Amino acid sequence: MKYSFAFFFFFFSFFFLLLCSATAPVAAEGGQWQLLQSSIGVSAMHMQLLHNDRVIIFDRTDFGPSNLSLGGGRCRDDPRDWNLKVDCTAHAAEYDVAANSVRPLMLLTDPWCSSGTLAPDGRLIQTGGANDGERGVRYLAACGEYDCDWEEDPSGLAAPRWYATNQVLPDGRAIVIGGRGQYNYEFIPKLNSEDAGTVDFPLLRETRDAEYNNLYPFVFLNLDGNLFIFANNKSILLDYKTNTVVRTYPAAPDGHPRNYPSTASAVLLPLQPSGTDAEVLICGGAPAGTYTKALKKVFVGSLTTCLRISINDPSPSWSVETMPTPRVMGDMLLLPSGEEVLIINGATAGSAGWDLGRDPVLSPVGYRHGGPAGSRFDVKSPTTIPRMYHSSAVLLRDGRVLVGGSNPHAFYNFTGVDFPTDLSLEAYSPEYLAPENSNLRPEIISVAGAPVALSYGKPFSLKFTVAAMSEKGITVTMLAPSFATHSLSMNQRLLILQSEAAAAVLADEGASLYEVNAVAPMSAFMAPPGYYIVFVVNGGVPSEGMWVHIQH
Ligand SMILES: *[C@@H]1O[C@H](CO)[C@@H](O)[C@H](O)[C@H]1NC(C)=O
Ligand SMILES: *[C@@H]1O[C@H](CO)[C@@H](O)[C@H](O)[C@H]1NC(C)=O
Ligand SMILES: *[C@@H]1O[C@H](CO)[C@@H](O)[C@H](O)[C@H]1NC(C)=O
C-alpha cells in the first residue's frame, strides 16, 4: 500500500513536471553564445538595425587601414585624415543578418563617437563626430537589394558634436544634445529658420566636472512629450520647445557620475498602454575620480548599483538595487518579452577612454523589472570575448542580441596590447530561444505588403500559430530599434500594447492558429513616428518580430 502510494506520488509529480515544462519557459540555461564572424573587418563602435534587417556598423575614419577593403578600386582621398590620406579600406559596413554577410560602405567624414536616429522614413540619420566629421550629418537608406551608400552633409550641424545624444521627437525630427564643450542642443532636419541655430542648455554646463562625466547624456522622451535628461549625477525634465526645466529630480543618491567616461548605461523601462507611468533604470558606472586614476594606471572597481526612478511620480525618488557584479561600459537592452532588461558587455574596473578599462565582465546579467525586489537579477552564460571600450550590442528581429566591437586603442592593434582590437560579431540568444521553449514560441503569419502600416490609436490584428498556449496569456510588444554606441542605446523604447485575449481560429494536431487584437500606441508621445518591430509574446517567449510602420 505504502509502496504504491509512493509510486503514485512519484508518477504524478513526474507527470505534473511534464505539464509544467509545457507551459513555463525554462530559465535554467542562461542563454547561449554563437560566434557569427571571427572578423567582419570593421570594429563595431556604433550599430543600428534598419527595417531591411541589415545592421549598419561603423567606427571612425582616422584609425588607419581597417581589415575590410572598399573594393571596386575605390579609395577615400582625404587630406584632412589624421592617419591615412588615401585609404582604400572601409570604416563602415552593412551586415545582412539573414545572409550573415558584410558589404563595405564608403564614409567620407569622421563619425568617431557620434550619435544617430532613425528618421520616420526609416533612414539612418547620423550626426557629429570628430575632425572633418564634427558637424557632419550622414544619411543612409534601408535600401534592400541595390547598393546604396552614405550621403553626407559635412556642415549639416550648427555646432560640432562629439559624444552627443540624439532622441527622435513626436514630430519626427531629432534633437541632438551636447557634445564635448557644447552646452546646447539643436534639431535636425532643419525645416525652418528656428531650427538653424543652437539652444542654450545650462544643465550640461553645470554638470561638467574635471573629468567631463556628462558626455553622452541619457535622454528619454517622456509620455507628456518632455525629455528626461540625466547628466553626471543630476536629472531634469525638459520642455525642449520652450527651453524650460519642468522638474528637477533628486541627485543620484551616492553622488557618483553615470555618464561618459564614468559610463553606466540606462533604459526607459517598458511602457504600459495606460500611458502614465514611466520609469528610468541606470546601471553601473564608475565612482567619481576613476578616470583620473585610470590615467595613472590605478583601476578603481566599478559601481555595482542600479538606480531606478518613476519620472512621473508626484514625489520621485531613486531606489537603489545591487547587481550580482560591478560593471562599467555595460550595454542595456530591453528584451522583446517586455519582462527583462539585459545588461551585457563591459568591465569591472577602470573607465571609458583609451586603454582605461580592466577586468572584463563576460557574463551578461538579466534584470526582471516586474519581479520581487531583491530577486530581480540573474547571471547569464558567459562569452569568451571581452567587450571593452568601443563595443556595442543591438537586438535583432529574431530575438537574438548582436554583439560586436571592443577597441580601446587609437589604432587597430592586434598584438602587444591587453585587449586587442576586436572585429568579430557574436549573437547572444536569451533563454526564450532555447529549444525547450520552441513549443511556446508563437509564429506570426506573415502579412502581405509588410511592413504593416499602423495608425495611432487604431486597432489591428495579428494571426499566429503556437504549439502550446501559456496560461499567462498573450501580450503584444512593440520595440523601436536603437542606435548603440558607448554603452548607450539611443531611442530604445519598448511598448506593451493594449490587447485582447487571443482567440483560436483553427486547431489541428500540430500548431493551432490564433488571432490577437491589439491597439496601436495612442500618440506620438508614446511612440514617435517610424519603424518598429512587433512581437507576439506567449508566457515570456517572443515570436520572431514583424516590422511595422507608424506615422501621423
Ligand atoms: C587584420 O589585418 C592585419 C594586417 O593585415 C592582420 O595582421 C590581422 O591579423 C587582421 N586581423 C583580423 C582580425 O582579421
Ligand atoms: C554631483 O557631482 C558633482 C560634480 O562632480 C559633485 O560636485 C557633487 O557633489 C555631486 N552631487 C552629490 C549630491 O553628491
Ligand atoms: C598600435 O598600432 C599603431 C599603428 O599601427 C602603432 O603605431 C602603435 O605602436 C600600436 N600600439 C601598440 C601598443 O602596439
UniProtKB/TrEMBL annotation:
Residues 441-550 form the Galactose oxidase-like Early set domain. Residues 45-432 form the Glyoxal oxidase N-terminal domain. CDD domains: E_set_GO_C (cd02851). Residues 1-28 form the signal peptide. SUPFAM superfamilies: E set domains, Galactose oxidase, central domain. InterPro entries: Gal_Oxase/kelch_b-propeller, Gal_Oxidase_central_sf, Glyoxal_oxidase_N, GO-like_E_set, Ig-like_fold, Ig_E-set. Keywords: Signal. This is Aldehyde oxidase GLOX-like. It comes from Canna indica (Indian-shot).
